Amino acid sequence: MIEIEVKVRADHSKARPILDKIGAIKIGVESQSDIYFAVPYRDFAKTDEALRIRSLDGKAVLTYKGPKLDSVSKTRKEFETPVDEAATIEILHALGFSEAGVVRKKREVFSAGEITVCLDAVEELGEFLEVEIMAESENEFEASRAKLFKLLNQFGAGEEDSIRTSYLEMVLEKSKS
Ligand code: ATP
Ligand code: CA
Ligand code: CA
To answer: Where is the CYTH domain (predicted)?
Structure first.
């Protein structure tokens, strides 16, 4: 799948009435704990890739994300599969992969037509809003990105507000200071 996503800082108390106004439907709330891995033969911070185990509600999902495909949004290939968390950590360690960092957040998920809106309250970082379309191919990517920015406009945000730094990078940056 192709992930077409835009992330902005957002005050959730201001975003909620707008979600109501546009008729977004609340899908659920998740407490997510993400362990990101680093591999010895590549620097994911440079290549813009990601290997992660996300645990939520007793389940775990392994995700690989490919490099970003454009300079404004966070569009990239993404593959996901359910896994056993403990076994997968053992396998990745045995292969020489190490843990790069952990990101914890509460994520409220809303559906606004084909767009998924997430209100993320990230530990140590604060409140964010992400809008996302998952597409089968890269063909629709520019049209999808335009739809995302059109929706973000309703929240008073534009291209200049788009954050391409990952939560992991922000958490790692914060732990340095
Ligand atoms: P999702 O949208 O899949 O739910 P998320 O919103 O929790 O994820 P994002 O910040 O959107 O988190 O994406 C995770 C990011 O972490 C990716 O952009 C990836 O490139 C970045 N990342 C992964 N591993 C590393 C690493 N070792 N160093 C720096 N950045 C990394
Ligand atoms: Ca996403
Ligand atoms: Ca994201």
So the answer is: 1-173
Calpha distance 26→38 (Å, rounded): 34
Pairing of strands 126-135, 59-65: unpaired
Strand partners, 30: 107
- The model carries a pTM of 0.93
Q: Is the pLDDT of residue 137 over 90?
A: no
CA–centroid distance, 21 to ligand 1, in Å, is 30
Query: What span, in angstroms and rounded, lies between the C-alpha atoms of 120 and 99?
Result: 23
pLDDT average, residue stretch 31-46: 96
Instruction: Provide the domain limits for residue 102.
Output: 2-176
Residues with CB under 6 A from ligand 1: 5, 7, 34, 36, 38, 44-45, 48, 50, 65, 100, 130, 166-169
Q: For residues 65 and 77, is the Cβ–Cβ distance under 8 A? A: yes
Ligand of minimum distance to the alpha carbon of 132: 2
pLDDT of 73 strictly over 80: no
Q: Residue 139 pLDDT > 90, yes or no? A: no
CATH code, 170: 2.40.320.10
Q: Give residue 74 CA to ligand 2 midpoint distance, Å.
A: 9
Is 167 known to be catalytic?
Answer: no
